[in-house]
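Possible regression after last week's pipeline update?

I re-ran a chain I had predicted before the update to compare outputs. Posting the input and the new output here so someone can diff against the archived version. Not blocking, just want to make sure nothing changed silently.
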Amino acid sequence: MIHIVDMGVNHETAPVELRESLALYSESSEASVACITDLPWIKEGLFISTCNRVEALFTTENTQEAESSVVELLSQTRSVSAEDFLPHLFIHRDKDAVRHLLRVASSLDSMIVGEPQILGQIKDAYSKATRERTTGVILNRLMHRAFHTAKRVRTETGICDAAVSVSYAAVELAKKIFYDLRGKKVLLIGAGEMAELAARNLLSQGVTSVTVANRTFERAVDLARNFQGRPVAFEEIGLQLFEADIVISSTASPGYIITVEQVKKCFRKRRNNPLFFIDIAVPRDVEPQVNDLENAYVYDIDDLRGVVRINKAKRADEAFKAERIVEEEVIKFGKWLKTLAVVPTIVSLKEKGEAIRRAEIKKSIADLGSLSPEQMGVLESLTLSIVEKIFNDPIVFLKGKSERPHATVYLDMARKLFNLEPYDKEEEKHEHSGNDSKSQKAS
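New output (post-update):
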């Protein structure tokens, strides 16, 4: 029996240091994917590797041996002792493995529920596997089911709509003020992690340029290079307010970096175009009274966290809908998987019917004499139709029984009734010879 296994580590089971050690990047990723199906007992396989997870997804007929070989592969290729990561390893099998993958693809298993990046990362992992030809019938179907599920979750729920991190909340608020962020300019003050992430998210929404100001100019140069932006001296902040549309500030300054007078002065030359401040610093960088000015909008860390809290509650409600969609798709895939057991028997039935049809046509042609192409076409069509109608009921019956607990009983019976197994003929001969000897003794 074929089993589906998903095993690895993620942000919930392992610290970041271990995830970094096990992560598969560029060449190591290609090499690991290429050799996964060379491992004992593994039929199909692929790796999903991101900053928050390293997972191996594979099919096998022997879960214990296959899981051990994957652990050994990770240990050897990443130079990490198996004893170091085994305590952090999770293993999902069969239906649980399917459910886990669908939840990951739908961003229900992410550190930030609803974040969009994970689906692209899974698609990249699948693309590598298809290039290396390490996936087959089961994983191909499962991956496409995962993509379909993620699309349903995005379109049928609002799980991706509400920002649940400070950086995402900043982008959401900016959209409310400017509606369209394309062509807008960002001034980034300081080098805080949240501020940098907010700037990255704004760039992904169409912001055209980032200017970076930092007390240490060298740091401003380095950070600006990351954004393909422009570094400026800290003393130039007042001048940069004339051009900026969005200001993100995150410094360790004990006092205000941006004052009411600075903003008033810049508005005289800005012709009252809106200016949006995202103040992530504690203590605050932007004087609170700036928010009283017309066309000036200031949101500090508490405002952003308030948005996050509200949206987390909204997203929790949407997550219930998303989980229901995942369960629906798990059931659908499970039904398809069960039909695989009847496929060989159905194929054998069709092959036998076709073999009989061709043999009988060959015999009949000798008696019918020369037939025109049109007559031959009619004969082919007639015999095909007869064979299809004869085998249709048995095939429909077997498909219907594929989900029953005793499906194998029906499959065995079908193979015996239609003499589909080579050993059946041997058994028949044995039985006939036994009966003949009995009758001889009786006589």
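Follow-up from reviewer: compared with the archived run. The CA atoms of residues 171 and 202 lie 6 Å apart. Marking as no regression found.
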